Amino acid sequence: MELRIIAFTPRGALLARELSAGLEALGHRCAACSFRAFPGADGREALPALEGQSLSQWTGAAFREAEGLIFVSACGIAVRAMAPYLESKHADPGVVAVDEGGRFAVPLLSGHTGGANRLARQIAAITGGVAAVTTATDGAGLLAIDDWAAENGWRLEEPDRVKAISAALLAGGQVSFRSDFPVRGPLPRGYLPGRAPRLWFTMSSAPAGEALKVLPPALWVGIGCRRGAPPEQIAAAVEAALAAGGFSPLSVAGAATIHRKRDEPGLLEYCRRMGWPLQSFSPEELAA
What pLDDT sits at residue 241? Predict the structure, then answer.
């Protein structure tokens, strides 16, 4: 995850620095700062301080650029800072508040889809504190479908349908699903592959029907274009190809092209807009 961390006290700045190192060791990418300059034990700044930027501006930029935010502060500071930027539980980044002593890591926003619950547990493991996870399914020892999806990098189409699945699990029911892909390992408690009369979700690259659609990014789009093709023309061609196959754009992992088109401006811009990596191959590789 791309993380932003901010602290507000000298003790908090030292903890933020510790968290940044610990989370980077777990594979996250962290950028930590403090609200104002605080010296470390060596007399130098413990963290870079915000300069010419308000807390609201920092939070707005972090919401746009990062997948997770960590406030080493009281929960109230974090809530007031992020309130103007809230959109939805399926779009907002995960947000965790940690007290400056590292005793409690509290997921405040996007616990499942945004990964705040998992992030809080990682923080607690680093500090020796407690992850104060309050989502109902976690409290009942159940794995929510949006959490299961986030853990595996799956995407959800029409995510508001998650509520019905969580409600069924919390009521002690079982959730059935159909998958076009092999599901390896033991299933979470309450999930059955296509055995119940009602199908709660489908896992497919070409989903159909009224069930929640869970989309593993399993497709790569091969794109060729003339020199100077604008991104809008490329977008129209890709959208038509996906629609013809019944595929969802959410099922796409990235795009591929031939080496000589890898620097094509329109193609690069289109991939940037879609958030897709672009891989290129030689004519010999493609011919094989």
Answer: 96
- Phi, psi angles (nearest 5°) of residue 32: -110, 145
- Which of 181, 275, 276, 180 lies closest to 222, judged by CA? 276
Q: Does the structure show a pLDDT above 90 at 88?
A: no
* Amino acid occupying residue 210: E
Do β-strands 29-34 and 68-72 pair in parallel, antiparallel, or remain unpaired? unpaired
What are the tokens at 212?
Answer: 């929640």
The two beta strands, 212-215 and 278-281, are unpaired
Q: Mean of the pLDDT values across residues 95-119?
A: 93
Measured between alpha carbons, how far is 263 from 192 in angstroms, rounded to an integer? 46
User: 107: helix, coil or strand?
Assistant: strand
Predicted confidence (pLDDT) at residue 43 exceeds the cutoff of 80 = no
CA distance 188 to 149: 12
- Continuous segment of H or E residues that includes residue 11: helix 10-25
Side-chain half-sphere CA neighbours of 168 within 13 A: 19
